[in-house]
Amino acid sequence: MDPPYPTEIPPLLPEFLQRRRAKLTFALEKTEELGIDRATFIFVINLSYRGDRGASGEPGDLMSAYATIPDRWLPMAAAARGAGLVEERGARWYLTNKGRQLAGAMHDAARSHYASLSPLPRNELAELARLLDRAFRAGADAPEPRVRLHTPFAFAYRGEEPPDGSFAQLDAAVYGLWQVRDDCHMTAWRGAGLNGPEVELLTRVWRDEATDEDGLAALLPHQRAEDIHSGLARLRERGLVEPSAPRTTPEGATTRQRIEDETDRLFFSPWPSEVGAKAPFIADRLAKVNAALN
Predict the structure, then answer these.
(1) What is the tens place of the pLDDT at every residue in 157-187?
(2) What's the CATH number of domain 119-294, 1.10.10, 1.10.600, 2.60.40, 3.40.91?
(3) Whole-model pTM above 0.85?
């Protein structure tokens, strides 16, 4: 599709992902049964999306690309290993048979839960699911971004093909689109010469979310205070943040907007023009789905 891009759609994707399982009780039941906490359960489920390749502690994998504190995931991995759900081999982490059974049961429970949901009239839900599924497949098959860390997770998450026009298809498409956008965003900020922690600092400053370094530290628990300080120093050296306060300079605001624009270009340009033409419908109906799931 050609610009202007429907930038009202991306914020709806994580909102959907945060809400679609809000009333699913499977995780609570299994954490009690297995004697693990919710963070450990989520670690196991997320590891299942890595497939047979497993996962490592590299940034963008088990470690967030935006974090500076190493091994924040290790306590969850240790607890999961203690429960017999994961194992470490050659500095990579894999599900055990027990872990795969848990992930499969979660997948089945989610699909069953989705079948009970009717946030839109059936014909509208089916159209929304098909449109976003086409958008996902086009984005996943596009030549850009060249580096794909998260897009492969979407195919493991999907598993067997969901029923056409179903809520499960909508879920798989939205999850997939969010992984594609992650890869688009990482390519965009790398192209601007920034690393993950730096771009997150720049983003928070650009959005005027904090008035000082303490405020930034409260927003970024996955970055150490000293890393926030040194990250701001590097951004100031480049003329992107004002020297006296965490505010973007004109160049900083321009740089961050260029990152956003490039993210949007990479994300939306592969969408078929017929899907792009339905962007107002997609935004309106996805917002209604999110409201119904609240």
Answers:
(1) 999 999 999 999 999 999 999 999 999 999 9
(2) 1.10.10
(3) yes
